[in-house]
Amino acid sequence: MRRLLKSPLLIEILRPLGQIVIFVTASGAILSVITLLIAFLLRDSAAGLACIENYGVDLVTYTVVNLPQVLIDGVTIGFVYATIALGYTMVYGVLEFINFAHSEIFAIGAFIGVETLIALDNAGVLTGIPTWEAYAWLGIAILFSMIVAGATAVAMERIAYRPLRGAPRLVPLISAIGVSFFLQDLIRLVESLTTGQFYRVFPTFGNFDERISIATIPFRGTVIELSIQVKSVIVIVAAIVMVVGLNFLVNTTKLGKGIRSTAQDRTTASLMGINVNLIISMTFLIGGLLGGAAGVLFAMKFTRIDPFVGFFPGIKAFTAAVLGGIGNITGALLGGIVLGMLETFAGSYLNVFTNGAFGAEYKDIVAFAILILVLIFRPSGLLGEQVGQKA
User: Fold this and answer.
1) Which of 8, 13, 53, 386 is the most buried (most CB within 10 A)?
2) Beta bridge partners of 224
3) pTM of the model as a whole
């Protein structure tokens, strides 16, 4: 038993699970305390009086009643950002290069998954099917999206990035921006030729929209209903599996050792017999696989997508990677969870706390303002690590 507990295999599975629990608990607790403190200070202000008038409860009660659902929503969107951020941090960790086209890989995954499910729905395959079959078809759509997105990422690296590997860093960065625009227009072209529609909606099937009741908590004469949608559970579980799987691959497998060696020193790794080009291609492949899966999960959670669907999630995922410490897998996870929490808390309470002066649309300003503060005092990010200069 003791040998099993000390097994590297088990350690690399349990460690990221422990980190997830710590990150979710710590960020949720800190933001909850800050939010409750603000609500307590504002309870007798104009915002507090307006809350009583509009909702029939004082500001503190309103905050507490909505807090569990805000935490659940924050964790869900945080894991989506984390899975996208892993693609950014994987490429940066090996090449010290920001692959801005990764957001379009995410969009391609979303479209492939949604179009696959729409085709199945139009064929009547998804009508009246049992729950287990709905999950099976969703899994097939995710797998298909991962394959196409991963292949696109590998082709992108081979055509647009590899010829520029020895060029100044600004050159591949500009190339990445160009690839991003190209892939956006490619999605629009394919959609216009095949469906004639740029806006696609995730089909309704299975029990994904149902809510699971977790608990009912009485509080000050009101009741706190704690529930979570089935699709939110799927997003969280899938994200955890991807994070744990990536951590296991990087830290315990031969491919992971090659990735870490190439990230540390490409020249020395090449001299030691590592096929650097293959390792870099595999890094893009892994990032593409994660991005494709994240695209389908995002589409399932928010239902509607368009050719530019990858832009804002991509920017936020990149922000999450920087916030946690780009080049650090654990940092990408932390950054995604923190950013998702910040965005959800701001979107839920900012309008009430400011008495309508600032609405939910200002949530991004709050999140990015905190990012700026973090980078001022800790430029490498919350868990940032120094990555060696690449040859």
Assistant:
1) 13
2) 217
3) 0.86
Over residues 287-301, mean pLDDT:
90
pLDDT score, position 6 = 60
d(CA 4, CA 18): 17
The torsion of the CA quartet 57, 58, 61, 67, rounded to 10 degrees, works out to 100
Identify the three-state secondary structure at position 272.
coil
Task: Kindly list the distances between the CA atom of residue 45 and the CA atoms of 57, 350, 366, in Å, as whole numbers in the listed order.
Answer: 14, 15, 22
Smallest CA-to-CA distance from 287 within 339, 237, 329 is with 329
Instruction: List, for residues 88-105, the tens digit of each pLDDT value.
Output: 888 887 777 788 888 899
Q: Cα 13–18–19 angle (5° rounding)? A: 105
Tell me how far CA of residue 117 lies from CA of 123, 126, 132, in angstroms: 10, 8, 15
Is a pLDDT exceeding 50 seen at residue 389? no
Tens of pLDDT, residue by residue over 239-251, are 888 888 888 888 8
Amino acid identity of 84? I
Q: Quote the DSSP letter at residue 160.
A: I
**Interior CA angle at 388 toward 382 and 389, to 5°?**
120
Identify the structural domains of the chain with CATH numbers, from first to last.
2-377 (1.10.3470)
